[in-house]
Amino acid sequence: xxxxxxxxxxxxxxxxxxxxVKASVEIGGxxxxxxxxxxxxxxxxxxxxxxxxxxxRKLKKLWELSDWGRPGETALNLVIPAGMRGKxxxxxxxxxxxxxxxxxxxxxxxxxxxxxxxxxxxxxxxxLFLPRTGYYMVFRTSDTWGRVPSxxxxxxxxxxxxxxxxxxxxxxxxxxxxxxxxxxxxLSNMQMFRTSLLLEEKAxxxxxxxxxxxxxxxxxxxxxxxxxxxxxxxxxxxxxxxxGRIRMLPEAFRELVYARMENPSATxxxxxxxxxxxxxxxxxxxxxxxxxxxxxxSSE
Length: 300
Description:
Blueprint (H helix, E strand, L loop, with lengths): L3 H11 L5 H14 L1 E5 L5 E6 L2 H13 L7 H5 E2 L8 E5 L1 H11 L9 H12 E4 L6 E6 L7 H11 L5 E5 L2 E6 L2 H10 L3 H51 L7 H12 L5 H6 L7 H14 L6
Antiparallel strand pairs: 1-2, 2-4, 3-4, 5-6, 6-8, 7-8
Helix pairs in contact: 1-9, 2-3, 2-5, 2-6, 8-9, 9-10
């Protein structure tokens, strides 16, 4: 089975659009999730940065389809760290950024293309985690350039009846979704079909493993209880025979005592079937309670 980490960003990067507005909205989502601020000596540049290099590769392709800027402009303004270690930075005109963010950075203004915006922000600041139990998707956003992406994201999720919770950590707002079906639905709406199918496959495999473990644990528990019961009954039978108190018991009960001595590892159901007149498990349990009482031996 493919590893989720190896699939998710390849899946995200491979989803492209051929429509100017959709491309512009997805870029709005990407910038909504990137760390950004004013740079330069006169603060005449908008600087966005991320260690996710694949975001900028896709951004360049989307840029050439959108109305955010001239074709090839992102390549001229990218600052790539030496050795591809660290963060890639992108410098843009702040006035243009404010204008385009107001047009394409709010899914409420572009409801028809809201999932393109969500795909963009997921690529720049979203993550999907699969701990030992459960699943959760996290968007880690910061408020810069007059943007409040966490509020816009929350509105989009609420509009689609997706439960989430928000918390603030280290100056970032984390929006967390924990429902597996909601996460799969979001991935499908973002056209990340390989990831959604892989997540469902993993969820099914987990469910099967959990069910198998429960069955094994239940069987082990039943075997242990059966052996403990057989051991106690053997001790009772030996005590009755040694002391001669077995003569105090009715014939059907005496037969049950001897049957236990002859079948030390049999279950109660199996024990009931070896009697001259087979009886049910519940009848065997009832008779053993009577045996303990008549013999003056307390059952555990």
